[in-house]
Amino acid sequence: MADADVNPKAYPLADATLTKTILDLVQQAANYKQLRKGANEATKTLNRGIAEFIVMAADAEPLEIILHLPLLCEDKNVPYVFVRSKQALGRACGVSRPVVATSVTIKEGSQLKPQIQSVQMAIERLLV
C-alpha cells in the first residue's frame, strides 16, 4: 500500500526494513512474556511506567482509538512507532486476531535488552 493510503496522523511510520525488525522483536518479546497486547493494555503499561516502547497499527479503524497513546508516550518519554498492518502486528504478537497496539515491557535482566535499545534508537531517529 502506498504512503498516500496511510492516515497522516499515523506518525512516525516505520519503513519496510524497520517494520520487519520491530515485528521480529515483538515476536521475541511475546516469547519472553515481555509483551502486552491491545490499546487498553498498552495504556496501562504506560501509566505504570513499564513500557519500553509502543507499536501501533496505522490501519486501525478508526485511528482515533489509539491516538491517545502517542500523547501519553510523549508525556512519559516512551518511544512509539506505527507499522502499516494490524494483521501483521497481530501475527507478530502470536495471536490470530489483528492487534492495533502493543507494548514491549521492561523486564529486569531481559535478554532482549540490546535489541530493544537498538529499536528504541531507530524509532527516535524517525522522529527527528
TrEMBL record:
GO-annotated cellular components: box C/D methylation guide snoRNP complex; nucleolus; spliceosomal complex
Listed PROSITE patterns: RIBOSOMAL_L7AE (PS01082)
Record flagged with keyword Membrane: no
Keywords on record: mRNA processing, mRNA splicing, Nucleus, Ribonucleoprotein, RNA-binding, Spliceosome
Parts forming coiled coils: none
Gene3D superfamilies membership: 3.30.1330.30
GO biological process: mRNA splicing, via spliceosome; ribosome biogenesis
PANTHER family cross-referenced by the UniProt entry: RIBOSOMAL PROTEIN L7AE FAMILY MEMBER
Function: Part of the small subunit (SSU) processome, first precursor of the small eukaryotic ribosomal subunit. During the assembly of the SSU processome in the nucleolus, many ribosome biogenesis factors, an RNA chaperone and ribosomal proteins associate with the nascent pre-rRNA and work in concert to generate RNA folding, modifications, rearrangements and cleavage as well as targeted degradation of pre-ribosomal RNA by the RNA exosome. Involved in pre-mRNA splicing as component of the spliceosome. Binds to the 5'-stem-loop of U4 snRNA and thereby contributes to spliceosome assembly. Common component of the spliceosome and rRNA processing machinery.
Recorded family membership: Belongs to the eukaryotic ribosomal protein eL8 family.
Protein name: NHP2-like protein 1
Annotated organism of origin: Polypterus senegalus (Senegal bichir)
